[in-house]
Amino acid sequence: MFAAAGRAAGIAAGVLADAVFGDPRRGHPVALFGSGAAALEHRLYRDDRTAGVRHTAALLSSVALLGAVAEWAGRRRGPLAEAACVATATFVALGGTSLCRTGGQMVGLLEAGDVEGARRLLPSLCGRDPSVLDEAGLTRAALESIAENTSDAHVGPLVWAALGGVPAVLVYRAANTLDAMIGNRSPRYLRFGWAAARFDDVVNLPAARLTGLLTLVCAPAVGGSPGAAARAWRRDARKHPSPNAGVAEATFAGALGVRLGGPTQYAHELEIRPTLGDGRTPAVGDLARAVRLSRAVQVAAAAVAVSAACRTGRPASPRR
């Protein structure tokens, strides 16, 4: 009982810390992991899947071991230390507050007509080539990123913190970071990044579906339709090349009454994405609504995670 409550309290404290502070600008552990992953890649890179499997397994198993040791050490020091360990790991893994802050900055730039400023900001949200995007393209790219990263940067960490504690949430965040680094379809990473991309797909399956459900629930908060979100999910999500991003983007499109998808230019290729939703082309006002919808989903996900942690946390050991 006490251990489960400690995990729940730790998750709640981590969410509160993220809401207050957002991502640290310097010395973020995720950035340190990225630097280590890049250094290991320099040593292990080969243009084949086997090398990519070794690279991914080495990094994620190291993070899992670090998380397990940290949780064990916190547990030995008592419930407060264990809760603090969960809180720290959850805070490190969450990125929802920074996501919405960046989305709000994008709204402000586009409302002011500062297309060049919006182009400079877009890489903070996604990996598309901003130089080829006009206001409409920037709006669509930012909205799709807000939808996808509501799942990846917020709901996903909370799901794994609730289910598996410190090791699980740290491995999830490391997998998500590694996928962003090498999980793309560029010539360099098509084979080497295969394992990272597939592992990220697997660990994001529950988070994406929870994001879809919570988007349905929260749609009325931004004047949206749960029914339209459900129809877009059922009809369009499976068309997306990602089994998880498709759920988040389709439900956001339906909830907001907009149409997403279409030509999507990355540095390494042009993708023709399927159409998600059957509404209008998104405007800047719709992007502002997407940011509010993301915040609502984040709050709902935190409530679900804390409730789940109370039921799934490690039972307390009986005292002798």
Task: Describe the protein in words.
A hairpin with a 4-residue loop joins β1 (260-265) and β2 (270-276). The chain is globular, with a radius of gyration of 20 Å. It is mainly alpha-helical and 320 residues long. It has eleven helices and two strands, in the order ααααααααααββα. The chain has one domain. The chain has a two-stranded antiparallel ribbon. Helices cover 71% and strands 4% of the residues. The chain has helices at 2-21, 29-44, 49-77, 79-93, 96-111, 115-121, 135-182, 194-218, 226-236, 245-256, 284-312, and strands spanning 260-265, 270-276.
Short description:
With 320 residues, this protein is mainly alpha-helical.
How large is the count of helical segments?
A: 11
Element-by-element helix/strand order:
HHHHHHHHHHEEH
Overall mean pLDDT: 92
Low-confidence stretches: none
Distance between the termini: 16 Å
Q: Based on DSSP secondary structure assignment, what is the total number of beta strands?
A: 2
**What's the alpha carbon Rg, rounded to whole Å?**
20 Å
Classify the beta-strand content into a percent band.
Answer: under 5%
Strand order of the largest sheet: 1-2
Coarse structural class? mainly alpha
InterPro entries: Cobalamin_biosynth_CobD/CbiB
Subcellular location: Cell membrane
Keywords: Cell membrane, Cobalamin biosynthesis, Ligase, Membrane, Transmembrane, Transmembrane helix
GO molecular function: ABC-type vitamin B12 transporter activity; ligase activity; threonine-phosphate decarboxylase activity
